[in-house]
Amino acid sequence: LLGPSGCGKTTLLRIIAGLETPDSGSIHFHGADATARQVREREVGFVFQHYALFRHMTVFENVAFGLRVRPKETRPTDAEIKRRVHELLELVQLDWLADRYPPQLSGGQRQRIALARALAVEPKVLLLDEPFGALDAKVRKELRRWLRRLHDELHITSIFVTHDQEEALEVSDRVVVINKGQIEQIGSPQEVYDHPVSPFVYQFLGNVNQFYSQIHQGEANIGGVGLKINAHYDTKHSAGLAYVRLHDIEIHKVRNGEAPAFEAVIHYIHAIGPLVRLELQRADDHDSNKTDLIEAELTQERFRELGLSQGENVFVYPRNVRVFLNQAIPRDIA
Hints:
CATH 2.40.50.140; 17 strands
């Protein structure tokens, strides 16, 4: 479940868990209506952002907790609990920490213990509410790769809440993009990235340039430059928004044949690791506040090859232009 803060992701997760009641609609687990089931009857595992481990219990006892509090008739024996806990600790590669306490663990280790505890009760559905949100970037990246491998091994239906686009695209089989309590799009990571169905999805899944345009018979006119868009061939003189991702902007120092291009001036150059991000202002845009800048991303190699510098005039060639007709620019991207 991917969307900005406050869009309803966690509320939906809590409804699935039985911690909130839906105003309408129903929840189905494996084809069976579970809307009226109590939390315990739903057999879900829940992993929160802030670990929620018991500080006074060892790692072993934290993982065993869900098994020990089961009703007597369904509670495993002590021997079964011990076997199950050590099995899970081996699964999350932390069996050697069984006798430690949560304050003695790193953030990444605590979150893996929280996941082992959620798995101990053998849930039918695993719910994860921004489980890596409190961790630093390097640990987050390592853990999401680890979680993806773990999921492939266990084959438990898992619902993962995040507002991090890269995280969603990396760990999921299917992405549900949510905005203001409404589902905007459902699809594979590749599908929602390559074929966004709305301006919101386009903007939320990565940095984009957006332009007001006039659409006429398969062409978007932006500031007097006509760009082929391979769509809307029957549309005539209609307003729309055109979107181009930063890596779909080509930069040349001289005009490249007859292909349509913007003339622009480089205002800022930002080196970001292996990439260089350029901020450019179109020659036809005379706004002194420079609010309508074009952004482009180049590899360091391409940037050095071109020998670009701040204040230089260049030609900008947009590729893969996507147009949405009669749209206002979304202002609610959080």
